[in-house]
Design a protein that fits this description.
single chain; about 170 residues; mainly alpha; about 50% helix; globular
């Protein structure tokens, strides 16, 4: 018997209104996407939130767990030795844990970005594996990475309980 869907339909949020500088536009869109994916995971039911709904094994909780590692590596200089493992939250982590960890990491990344005035300068983070990327590259990469996974999350959340919208 198919799982009944709740059909919770949130209205879509329009793209953000930002300032006119390149930094304000890039940060505004990144924060918009960060909020969208965190909201998509927040409140998702267990165990479906960690259950693969597609043949690749991708699951909703794992996407946000992965993005936490991407944020830490990109803006905080933390090394990740096993990227495939970042797509799976620990069995003891519940939705609230993973969402809170993501939001804390984003806040720390934003503290780093608050000190950046020059988009062409390297991200001011430890450089254990070579030079840091430019702030412009790091922001653009995180917009692409977060946007791509937010699209995956949209589909996975709808498959879980019918919830749609941003």
């Amino acid at each position: 018997m198919p799982t009944p869907f709740r059909r919770d339909r949130r209205s879509d949020s329009p793209p953000p209104r930002t300032g006119t500088s390149e930094m304000e536009v890039l940060r505004g869109f990144l924060d918009y996407l960060r909020s969208s994916i965190a909201a998509k995971v927040d409140g998702a039911p267990e165990p479906e939130v960690r259950t693969a709904k597609v043949p690749s094994g991708t699951n909703l909780l794992g996407l946000l767990h992965h993005l936490t590692f991407v944020e830490s590596a990109t803006f905080l200089g933390e090394q990740v030795r096993d990227w495939p493992s970042t797509f799976h939250a620990a069995a003891g982590d519940d939705v609230d844990d993973v969402v809170a960890r993501y939001r804390r990491t984003v806040a720390r990344a934003n503290e780093v970005l608050d000190g950046c005035a020059d988009l062409g300068a390297p991200v001011p983070r430890p450089r254990p594996a070579g030079p840091a990327p430019s702030v412009r590259w790091a922001l653009t990469h995180m917009i692409e990475e977060t946007g791509r996974h937010a699209g995956h999350a949209d589909i996975l959340r709808e498959l879980i309980d019918g919830a749609t919208g941003r």
